[in-house]
């Protein structure tokens, strides 16, 4: 029986290198270089083939945007990481404000 719940899992490694490259409009060598640089670590199939998740594809797309604007890979990785940290902090602040508002009522 098929586990259809995996279709909604952003971390399920569903995409081969070829599929990922086609979806992102990049060369497969670019994806392999991200793996070699330890920037994106795809899971491996039983046969050792790279498998990418939707979350990884979104991250790679964001990296590519930074690279296209002239940033180095290290800088692009740092920028995307800082953007994620900022988004998490903003969410935490919003949650805390909501809790404070609820407690004040």
From TrEMBL:
Pfam families, per database record: MerR_1
GO biological process: regulation of DNA-templated transcription
Gene3D superfamilies on file: 1.10.1660.10
Gene Ontology molecular functions: DNA binding
Keyword terms: DNA-binding
Domain HTH merR-type per the UniProt entry, residue ranges: 14-82
Protein name: DNA-binding transcriptional MerR regulator
Native source species: Amycolatopsis echigonensis
